[in-house]
Design brief:
The complex is a heterodimer of chains A (441) and B (623).
Chain A (H helix, E strand, L loop, with lengths): L1 E2 L14 E6 L11 H9 L4 E7 L5 H14 L3 E6 L2 H14 L7 E5 L11 H21 L3 E2 L8 E5 L3 H12 L3 E5 L14 E2 L4 E2 H14 L3 E4 L2 E9 L2 E8 L14 H5 L19 H13 L7 H12 L4 H11 L3 H10 L11 E6 L2 H5 L2 H12 L12 E6 L10 E4 L2 E4 L5 H14 L1
Parallel strand pairs in A: 2-3, 2-4, 4-5, 7-8, 8-11, 14-15
Antiparallel strand pairs in A: 1-6, 9-10, 12-13, 14-16, 16-17
Helix pairs in contact in A: 1-4, 2-3, 5-6, 8-9, 8-10, 10-11
Chain B lengths: L6 H13 L4 E6 L2 H5 L2 H15 L5 E6 L10 E5 L3 E4 L6 H10 L9 E2 L6 E2 L6 H4 L17 H6 L4 H9 L2 H11 L11 H10 L6 E6 L8 H8 L1 H15 L3 E6 L4 H16 L4 E4 L4 E9 L9 H8 L23 E5 H13 L1 H5 L2 E3 L8 E3 L1 E8 L5 E6 L4 H8 L9 E6 L5 E4 L9 H6 L8 E6 L4 H15 L5 H19 L5 H16 L3 H5 L2 H9 L1 H9 L14 E3 L9 H5 L5 E2 L7 E2 L9 H5 L5 E3 L1
Classes of the chains: A alpha/beta (441), B alpha/beta (623).
Chain lengths: 441, 623
């Protein structure tokens, strides 16, 4: 499609004259949206010369209404506020075209699926419908007449990546008679599946699925296999792309190579990619480092010490500081992700600093039966935080724990390692007492 | 501190300890429950009083761990008379020491009244809570200060180890355990000896034993009670097991939520090590074995054996599929035997007293098949809405009714029994019609529940069964490790359906969907956490179906728990206008003038139920 003025008029003196049509869709729209109000509002918008409401805009009389107005009022653009464009955009474009306007000088706003059907509040829904319609009016002003034309398309496909998915896609397309370029950056197609023994969930033999397809892809007359190659640039547009593929140097005459692999064995040079081990040492405050170093020393020589180290860190700092976790990973020479995996898995660890007083509410069964959820709620209301959070003044952290094993005393709460039976009615008193205690300190 | 060079040393040392047995003993319990109710202050006051009274060798105070009767903790027992004083205050210390301990006179005002009959109980052997129990594993808690290895040895401790090392081959030990029919006390009930035998047979560079004290089941704390009360008993069991299996290293995996248990078990290990009962060349017999303590990280799934081992290895506690059993490839890929605390604690008792003694109580016949029955005793944590909460040790095969009504003293505040939940989140909820079911491994599974680690949560009419099922699912959703999809997603979706039911938004078809989902989760989950997750839902749906229907059809929660379905109101004719409800209401929803009936503004009420609790005139209604 390109810009053109082959059909449709652009308004006599360049003035934009918009017609707006708001549809009731029976009661589909009108029961939730005040259609009249939307129509009246449309009249107030710039460039709108006429606005109408109608029971069914998509009906023949509805369409006739538009056609008539275009002729009588010299409309240049048309907006219909009704259903989804998927339903009737084509209908209205046709109507507009019949009346002599370019079909693309039309805009539709969806006040049914995106408004009346999904809302209950009439007032708010009407307001939303107005905004949707106004947006369409604004947009239609900027629309230009377009013409449709056909261009030749090269029916060739590029598949990037020769894993099992790429191979399968290439084969299917090639079987349907179209040319396929299959580009793979490794020397061979096959991808991850070549490394698997079995596939989930049927536990079928992975190689038995993969290898026949690899061979087929290599032999298929419609597939051009480009291994050891990478896509460098994609230009063009849907239907006509231009792609540059870099085929990496291989120093082998492929027309003669049988793939025996002897050159690989004979070559005296082994190529090893240089590890850009550009790791920057983790920055950690000196004081923190001292503590962490001590904890690390305590666990030196232990097998699998991560959990134990994090436990000690958690006790030391009250939580797990980020720098400390990174530092531990560095010193143990394991990925940071592994340390985080552990740190986020276990409940006992916290990644955020805790407050001065830690309140743990037991959510065990026995406590639940005796009303623990209500105790938690009372605490949440009193402290104005949710479970797992810390008050703004960093005084209290509220946590839940799945059974403290003091079931006979339920509902149990532990405040700063002191076990107590707490009922909702006592919450205020206990918290006030502790707050007061802190102030004096 | 003493260090034993050989087997004879232990026996000699014990004789010495027995000789100095003091005449008068003051037993004070100080487990976690006791501490939370002021046991520390009480002990300090009693110590001070003893010092002031200037007593010498004939009097001793023994600070024990949990004595099981958690409701009444801390407990003081005066021996030899056996006076039983529950929950005394520090102010009572003087009288207890001067009058009761030294002069042997009772203090009637400190005696307890039976919560059921109202009868005054004077002596420990008369306490109904204890009378119906069969204390075997838990019995020594009265006799032992968990911080003192001497107490344990005096009470016959490490005798079993000496006997095993002196007289028995490893195979004989295993054979004995098989014949005893001892089954895993952690819940699944796998025969312990069979496990040991496969582990002994398995090939590996090194073998491990693990004590599973990751007692994550909410509502169960028997393991904690044992570790806090008699840690050496567990340790002795582990050493015997290590000898039988051929293991050289052991771990006690105890959850970090049990700080006192960690502390006491660590001390026990240190003491045993310096006494020559752990380490290299134990008691000069050439046996090498040592134990490490590993605190969990607060993840329920770590109670699963493979997840637990992953956690010890410093990884996240995700279970693996058990095509290969842990007895062949467990910790660090080596043969590993993992048993529950209570299982290990049974071992020394079986060695000392023999197979016949052990099989003297229980159900079925295990002489030919270790799966043939459930033998010995089991410790349950009897909690929830019963009069006597605490740890109870009873013979296998006892009925639920005996435990709940005879030992537990029935339901609190004269309410009606509704249900009992056994086996934690993996178990099920049983109703009134199961009260006369005998408790053993196989019978509980047949009715849809399981033994689990011995949690027994009693519910009365104020518990909503739908909400209760939802509670377990939220728990499991939270604790699911997320590795396999049926558990991670299935439990979540089931919870959403239950949530809808509790909110009054569900349709009857949802029940069918819920059941379908439950079956899938049960079949397809990787480990037992997921595979047993639907149990609480399925059992409540079966035994309390009408309650589900009530929520859906009539939008009614008969227990008044589901907030969306309840409404609090004040009865004008009962309200005295005292204003206590208005004072406590956190949302300021209660208004009214003094001395005149108050009113709850429904638009502001958050349904927290505090008014209902604080009203002394039963003027607040919930319906």
């Amino acid at each position: 499609m390109r810009d053109g003025s082959a059909s449709g008029k652009a308004g006599g003196n360049g003035e934009i004259r918009i017609g707006v049509y708001v549809c009731h869709c029976g009661t589909n729209i009108s029961q939730t949206v005040d259609v009249r109000a939307v129509t009246e509002y449309a009249r107030t918008l710039p460039n709108v010369v006429i606005a109408r409401e109608y029971k069914y805009m998509c009906s023949d009389p509805g369409q006739e209404l538009i056609k008539k107005d275009i002729a009588e009022h010299d409309l240049t653009n048309v907006v219909v506020s009704s259903c989804s464009p998927l339903m009737h955009e084509e209908t209205f474009r046709g109507a507009v075209e019949d009346a002599g306007l370019n079909r693309y000088l039309f805009q539709m706003s969806n006040i049914r699926e995106q408004c009346s059907w999904v809302h209950h509040d009439r007032e708010k829904a009407t307001a939303k419908a107005k905004r949707l319609m106004a947006a369409a009016v604004r947009r239609v002003r900027m629309q230009r007449p377009l013409v449709q034309e056909e261009v030749p398309v090269r029916k060739e496909t590029l598949v990037v990546g020769g894993g099992i998915a790429g191979i399968e896609a290439a084969l299917r397309i090639a079987d349907s008679g179209k040319k396929v370029y299959l580009v793979e950056k490794k020397p061979s197609i096959g991808g991850h599946m070549a490394k698997f023994d079995k596939t989930f969930p049927t536990l079928d033999c992975a190689a038995c699925i993969l290898t026949p397809k690899m061979v087929q892809a290599g032999k298929h007359p419609n597939i051009r296999l480009m291994t050891w190659s990478e896509v460098e640039e994609v230009k063009g547009y849907v239907g006509n792309f231009q792609v540059s593929v870099r085929r990496k140097a291989r120093y082998v005459d492929e027309s003669k190579c049988t793939g025996c692999g002897q050159c690989l064995e004979r070559c005296p040079v082994t190529y090893q990619p240089v590890k850009t081990n550009g790791k920057v040492p983790v920055s950690i405050p000196a004081e923190m480092k001292e503590h962490v170093d001590r904890i690390l020393a305590d666990h030196r020589g232990e097998r699998g010490p991560v959990v134990a180290i994090l436990q000690d860190l958690n006790i030391e700092f009250g939580y797990l500081p980020k720098q400390a976790l990174r530092y531990v990973a560095e010193r143990l020479d394991i990925p940071v992700s592994r340390v985080y995996h552990v740190a986020t898995f276990y409940k006992a660890f916290s990644l955020t600093p805790r407050g001065e007083h830690v309140i743990k509410v037991c959510m065990g069964t026995a406590c639940h039966v005796r009303g623990a959820p209500r105790v938690l709620e009372a605490l949440e209301n009193r402290l104005e935080i949710r479970s797992g959070q810390t008050t703004k003044d960093r005084k209290f952290t509220l946590e839940t724990v799945n059974c403290l094993g003091a079931c006979a005393m339920g509902p149990v709460v532990v405040i700063d390692d002191e076990y107590m039976t707490l009922r909702p009615g006592d919450v205020d008193r206990v918290i006030s007492r502790i707050s007061g205690r802190t102030v004096r300190v | 501190m003493v260090r034993f060079a050989n087997l004879e040393d232990v026996e000699k040392y014990r004789k010495g300890l027995e000789a100095e047995r003091p005449e008068k003993v003051l037993v004070v319990s100080r487990g976690t429950c006791g501490r939370s109710k002021g046991a520390d202050k009480l002990v300090a006051a009693l110590e001070e009083e003893l010092r002031r009274a200037g007593t010498n060798g004939e009097v001793r105070m023994r600070v024990t761990g949990c004595l099981g009767y958690c409701d009444k903790e801390p407990i003081v027992i005066v021996r030899p008379e056996g006076f039983f004083y529950p929950e005394p205050k520090p102010e009572d210390a003087q009288e207890i020491v001067r009058k009761s301990l030294l002069q042997g006179k009772p203090i009637p005002r400190l005696f307890m009244k039976d919560p059921v009959t109202g009868k005054v109980i004077e002596r420990e052997r008369e306490v109904p809570f204890y009378k119906r129990q069969t204390p075997r594993v838990f019995g020594s808690n009265f006799e032992v200060d968990p911080t003192r290895i001497d107490d344990y040895i005096r009470n016959g401790g490490y005798r079993a180890l000496v006997k095993v090392l002196r007289e028995m081959k490893p195979e004989e030990v295993i054979d004995m355990v098989i014949r005893s029919g001892l089954r895993g006390r952690g819940g699944a009930g796998f025969p312990c000896g069979v496990k040991w035998a496969s582990c002994r047979k398995a090939k590996g560079e090194k073998k491990y034993v693990i004590c599973n004290a990751d007692e994550g089941d909410p509502g169960a704390y028997a393991n904690r009670g044992l570790l806090e009360g008699d840690p050496h008993l567990v340790l002795e069991g582990m050493i015997i097991g290590a000898y039988a299996i051929g293991a050289t290293e052991g771990y006690v995996y105890v959850r970090t939520e049990y700080p006192l248990a960690v502390e006491l078990m660590s001390k026990a290990v240190r003491d045993a090590r310096s006494a020559g009962l752990l380490g290299e060349n134990i008691l000069g017999t050439g046996l090498d074995f040592d134990v490490h303590i590993d605190r969990g990280g607060g993840a329920f799934v770590c109670g699963e054996s493979t997840a637990l081992m992953a956690s010890i290895e410093g990884r996240v506690g995700e279970p693996r599929a058990k095509h290969i059993h842990t007895v062949e490839k467990g910790l660090w890929q080596q043969p590993t035997t993992l048993n529950n605390v209570e299982t290990w604690a049974n071992i020394p008792l079986i060695v000392n007293n023999g197979v016949e003694w052990f099989t003297g109580v229980g159900t079925g016949d295990v002489s030919k098949d270790p799966w043939g029955g459930s033998k010995g005793t089991k410790i349950f944590s009897l909690v929830g809405k019963v009069n006597n909460t605490g740890l109870v040790e009873v013979p296998m095969g006892i009925t639920l009714r005996e435990v709940i009504f005879d030992i537990g003293g029935g339901i609190k505040n004269g309410k009606k029994f509704k249900a009992v939940q056994t086996g934690g989140p993996s178990g099920g909820v049983l109703s009134e019609k199961h009260l006369d079911e005998p408790i053993d491994y196989d019978r509980l599974v047949e009715v849809g529940s399981m033994m689990g680690s011995g949690g027994m949560i009693v519910m009365d009419e104020d518990t909503c069964m739908v909400d209760f099922a939802r509670f377990f699912l939220s728990f499991l959703e939270d604790e699911s490790c997320g590795k396999c999809i049926p558990c991670r997603e299935g439990v979540h979706q089931m919870r959403l359906i239950l949530h809808d039911i509790c909110e009054g938004k569900a349709k009857e078809e949802d029940l069918e969907l819920l059941r379908d989902l439950a079956e899938v989760v049960k079949e397809a989950s990787l480990c037992q956490l997921g595979a047993t997750a639907p149990n609480p839902v399925l059992t409540t749906m079966e035994y309390f179906h009408e309650e589900y229907l009530e929520h859906i059809r009539q939008r009614k929660c008969r227990a008044g728990v589901c907030k969306a379905l309840v409404r609090y109101e004040i009865l004008g004719e009962r309200c005295t206008g005292c204003g206590i409800c208005a004072k406590h209401c956190p949302s300021g929803a209660i208004t009214g003038e003094p001395k005149k009936p108050h009113r709850i503004r429904q638009d502001q009420c958050t349904k927290c139920g505090i008014c209902y609790d604080v009203c002394k005139f039963e003027a607040v209604t919930r319906n």
